[in-house]
Amino acid sequence: MSRVLRGLFLAMTASMRERQLCSGACRCRPITDWVRGISAGSIKSTSKMSHEREPRHRPGGSSASVRAPRGACNKEKRLECPVCEKQFALRSQLETHLRTHTGGKPFECAVCKQKFTVSGSLRRHLRVHTGENPFECPVCKTKFNRNENLEVHLRTHTGEKPFECTVCRQRFTQSGSLRTHLRTHTGEKPFECTVCRQRFTQSGSLRTHLRIHTGEKPFECSVCKMKFTVSGSLRTHLRTHTGEKPFECTVCKKKFNESGDLRKHLRIHTGEKPFECTVCRQKFSDSGNFRRHLRTHTGEKPFECTVCKKKFNERSNLKKHLRIHTGEKPYECV
Do you know which PANTHER family this protein is assigned to (predicted)? Predict the structure, then answer.
């Protein structure tokens, strides 16, 4: 590869000047001939001619050799990918680009053996192992392992949202957030579960869903060791230990440990009932009450007694029934 490149550079350096001086008597040939027969991983220049290393001729027939002045063909020094014809100014740029065609990943992490196409990607990856965060926010001093992550973070301080949806004009701080949002307009769900074929708009949603099938619960409470499928469930659970209730009703100042509970509570003040039965048109403020109501129409009884197999349409009715088998009498006369 390096010998090919040296030859190409020699040919290109002199090509412009030589075309001006060449009388036609020398053995010029197209650069495409020069690289013909080289494998798909080779490199060619967009310079039009190359000259073989033979005595060059001045106009008038002199056989004295001619040397092109340094820099005479800077405009001609473009290296072209033989696969897709994309052009590059530097050999190193082309060599890196060629790996997108060959799949070459010569840079390997010594810790986890993951491989990378370019050395810069390996350097960034190594920070995962070292914990290095060299990029610091000048406002809040939060540190990041990648400059791109710092740039995105800075928008939380500036309020900048450079990515705009062309459909509804909603703006976003990250291009990825815009791409995900656009799927709400297109209906696209590119991430499919290989087990049940359910599809999702976000890769993160698919990863979370897969835990239903695998039973994985990677988020563990440090207090009681209870495990959860998603990090949000763990955060909510931790409030049962801390007593924190960060969600406050602006009307009556009642506080809640979950945002969903606050949303449901607010409907008491607004009178909103967003859940409507398609059979009898009865409306409900709570989705749980709505689901229970639907069972009066469908006859569904999803709660089954493990002792006698009797079924119930509500969990509370099953709990009451189980006391027949256990003999439990939780209510005492005072």
Answer: C2H2-TYPE DOMAIN-CONTAINING PROTEIN (PTHR19818:SF163), ZINC FINGER PROTEIN ZIC AND GLI (PTHR19818)
